[in-house]
Amino acid sequence: MLETEWGSFCGSNTYLTPAATQGFAPHYDDIEAFILQLEGSKRWRVYKPRSSEETLPRTSSANFSQTEIGEPVLDHVLNPGDLLYFPRGWIHQAVSPEGAHSLHATVSTGLHNNWLDLLQYAMPRALDLAGENEVALRGSVPRDLLQFGGIINSDPGPDEDAVKEARLGFVNQAKVLAKLVLRHLPGVLDQAADQVARELMHSRLPPPLAGEEMPGRFGESGAPEAVGPNSMIRLTRREAARLVLEEEQAVLYHCVQNSRVHRAEEPKGIVFDIDQAPAVEAVLSAYPEPIMVAQLPMGDLQDRLDVALTLYEQGIVLFMGEAKDTDMKAE
């Protein structure tokens, strides 16, 4: 449910710390952290990032010594029911008091969910698209590039004005060409967002179902073995699946069959033909309302049944009963 709220993978760890002990040396993490004190108490000291390079880091730090981190900006004892938040990259350490243990839960989010990760998907696609459409990018590099480029030429001497001038012109030309690539960035951001969604589908837990929903899931007691034209089907949860286009195919990535072990298996994806994509999209867009199988936007009823049955058998949709309005039923 928190993954749905934050749009990002979440983790939860619980720490039991004996009295008068400290579990970890000072360090920072690559996630946003929410600390909920459950039993006992614990003294937390939190420190600002030491530099811009360590602000909002993408990897966790090694352990620090006390002399490396300065004075804390927060020094506070958490008691049961207290909640402490600190952002990615803020150094922290905690110790339980004399005579009492501490039990707290850490809920984390935001792992590899930043602009840099998004642009790492987008920029290669923008570069490919620019290469197809911008003739200047396909032009040859200067024939004397190796005479002024490279590490060996990175620090020209005082009598090498020609090398300095060539290097400056080379850099300026590269900047102009890079702007041509950026023209194509808006056209690939949707594809990059879909790849972020694909990674989230691979990471997250299956969506929890309410008790009354269980008889509608394929394989459960009381659930039908198949769906028909008048069956009403509904996506399990809005964020349980994502339809993306990959190599002339529509792939529906989902998390409904994920293991509780993080990324223990390959990403779960169902491949559909492009002409089946509108039917799948209709199911996704209808949530939280169900949709009747016969009303899926495809020309052939058997194709609609095939798509619906695939989604049902894979656990992507729930069976919500048969259409009651006779005017809605398929002939």
Features of this protein?
331 residues; 7 helices; 3 domains; Jelly Rolls; Arc Repressor Mutant, subunit A; Outer Surface Protein A, domain 3; three-stranded antiparallel sheet; alpha+beta
Question: What is the fold's blueprint, element by element?
Answer:
Blueprint: H1 2-6, E1 10-17, E2 32-40, E3 42-47, E4 74-78, E5 83-86, E6 91-95, E7 102-109, H2 115-133, H3 145-148, H4 161-182, H5 189-203, E8 231-235, E9 241-246, E10 249-254, E11 268-272, H6 277-286, E12 291-292, H7 301-313, E13 317-322
Antiparallel strand pairs: 1-7, 2-5, 2-7, 3-4, 3-6, 8-12, 8-13, 9-10, 10-11
Summarize the structure.
By secondary structure, the chain is α+β, with helices and mostly antiparallel strands. The protein has helices spanning 2-6, 115-133, 145-148, 161-182, 189-203, 277-286, 301-313, and strands at 10-17, 32-40, 42-47, 74-78, 83-86, 91-95, 102-109, 231-235, 241-246, 249-254, 268-272, 291-292, 317-322.
